Write a sequence for this structure.
C-alpha cells in the first residue's frame, strides 16, 4: 500500500501545473478550423546577457507546454564576452535547435537588435542569418537587413522604465517612420512582468501585431512561479497549422492573443473567437414550478475567467460578477421570471482586454 505522507502531498501539489501539461490538456481550445500555437519569441541565454545554456531553454519550453520559441540574444550587448567569445551570433539558435531535434518544440532563428531610444530594442525573428544584422553604429541598418531577410520585426518593451522613465509607451518620429515603411510589424504589450495599455493602443492604431514575451534571463521557474501554478507570458498565434511558415504568416496578419498572468489580450475578433471556444453553458433546468433557472457554465481553458453578467436578470445565489476557475464549472441561478427553454447570456470578460481600458463583451446561448 502507498502511504500518503504530507511530504508526498506537497510534492504532488508542486508538480500539479506540469501534470496538466503532461495530460496534454491544451491551455485554450482553438476556435474551429484553427490551430492555436503557443510561443515565446523573446528569450536570452549565456550567448548574450542570460544565465543559462540554450538547451535549458528548450527543456523549460517543453515542460511548460510551448509549441514554438525563438532564442533572441542581444547582437551587440555581450557582457560574457571574455569568458564566452561569441563570433557566430547564430550559435545559441544552433544549440537550441539541435537540442529540440527529437521533440515537438519548434525553434526559430532570432536576435535582439539593441539600441538606445529611439528606436530602443527590437526583436527580429524568422530571420536567415543573425550575423548579417550586426551594425553597431547604425540605428536602422539591422532592422532593414532583418526585413531584407523577410523576418518578423517587433518593438520590445516600449514601456521599459530604463528608456521611458514614466513607463508610458509612446512613438518617436523614428518609430513612425519605421512603421510607415513597414519595417516594424509588431509590438510587445507584455514584457517579462510588465504590461502596457499604451502599447495596446499603439498596436491598434498602427495595425501592429500584439506580443507578450518572457524576455527571460534567469530560470523561468523562478521568474514566473511555475511550481505554484504560474506561467510565463505567452503569445498564442491563430494559425492555419503549426508549421513555421503558417505561424509567421499569422504573425504578419496580427492574429495573436497574449496570455499574461490572468489577462487575455488581443484584437476583439480573435479574443471573441477564443472565448466562445472556451466557455459553454448547459441547458437551463427549473425545480418544480419555480422560475429560477440553473445553468452550468464550463471553462475549458487554463485561465481563470472573470465574468460580469450584463443581461437584464438578477441571480439568486451570486452577484453578477464572478469567476470560473481553470478547467472548472460554475452553476449560476438566474431569475428568468418565466420558464425558458433556452436564452442568451451576455457577459463582459473583465480580464479580456481588447484595448486601453476596454474589455471583451460576448454572449453565449444556453444549450
Ligand atoms: Zn531588450
Ligand atoms: Zn531582451
Amino acid at each position: 500500500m502507498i502511504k500518503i505522507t504530507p511530504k508526498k502531498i506537497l510534492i504532488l501539489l508542486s508538480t500539479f501545473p506540469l501534470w496538466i501539461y503532461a495530460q496534454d490538456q491544451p491551455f485554450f481550445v482553438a476556435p474551429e478550423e484553427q490551430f492555436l500555437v503557443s510561443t515565446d519569441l523573446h528569450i536570452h541565454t549565456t550567448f548574450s546577457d542570460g544565465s543559462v545554456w540554450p538547451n535549458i531553454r528548450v527543456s523549460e519550453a517543453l515542460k511548460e507546454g510551448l509549441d514554438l520559441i525563438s532564442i533572441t540574444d542581444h547582437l551587440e550587448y555581450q557582457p560574457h564576452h571574455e569568458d564566452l567569445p561569441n563570433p557566430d551570433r547564430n550559435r545559441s539558435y544552433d544549440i537550441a535547435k539541435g537540442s529540440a531535434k527529437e521533440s515537438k518544440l519548434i525553434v526559430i532563428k532570432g536576435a535582439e537588435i539593441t539600441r538606445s531610444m529611439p528606436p530602443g530594442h527590437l526583436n527580429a525573428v524568422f530571420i536567415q542569418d543573425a550575423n548579417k544584422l550586426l551594425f553597431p553604429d547604425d540605428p536602422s541598418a539591422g532592422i532593414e537587413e532583418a526585413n531584407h531577410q523577410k523576418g518578423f520585426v517587433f518593438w520590445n518593451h516600449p514601456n521599459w522604465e530604463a528608456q521611458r522613465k514614466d513607463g508610458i509607451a509612446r512613438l518617436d518620429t523614428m518609430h513612425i517612420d519605421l512603421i510607415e515603411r513597414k519595417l516594424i510589424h509588431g509590438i510587445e504589450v507584455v514584457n517579462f512582468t510588465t504590461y502596457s495599455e499604451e502599447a495596446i493602443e499603439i498596436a491598434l492604431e498602427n495595425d501592429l501585431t500584439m506580443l507578450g514575451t518572457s524576455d527571460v534571463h534567469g530560470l523561468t521557474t523562478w521568474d514566473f512561479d511555475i511550481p505554484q501554478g504560474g506561467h510565463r507570458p505567452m503569445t498564442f498565434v491563430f494559425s492555419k497549422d503549426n508549421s513555421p511558415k503558417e505561424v509567421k504568416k499569422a504573425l504578419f496578419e496580427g492574429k495573436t492573443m497574449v496570455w499574461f498572468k490572468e489577462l487575455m489580450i488581443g484584437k476583439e475578433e480573435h479574443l471573441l473567437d477564443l472565448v466562445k471556444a472556451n466557455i459553454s453553458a448547459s441547458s437551463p433546468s427549473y425545480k418544480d414550478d419555480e422560475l429560477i433557472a440553473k445553468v452550468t457554465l464550463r471553462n475549458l481553458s487554463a485561465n481563470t475567467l472573470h465574468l460580469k453578467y450584463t443581461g437584464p436578470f438578477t441571480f439568486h445565489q451570486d452577484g453578477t460578477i464572478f469567476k470560473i476557475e481553470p478547467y472548472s464549472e460554475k452553476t449560476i441561478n438566474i431569475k428568468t421570471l418565466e420558464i425558458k427553454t433556452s436564452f442568451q447570456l451576455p457577459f463582459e470578460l473583465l480580464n479580456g482586454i481588447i484595448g486601453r481600458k476596454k474589455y471583451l463583451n460576448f454572449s453565449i446561448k444556453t444549450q
Notes: Confidence is low (pLDDT under 50) at residues 8-16. The pocket of zinc ion (ligand 1) is lined by residues 112, 121, 156-157 (CB under 6 Å). Residues 268-278 form the longest helix (11 residues).
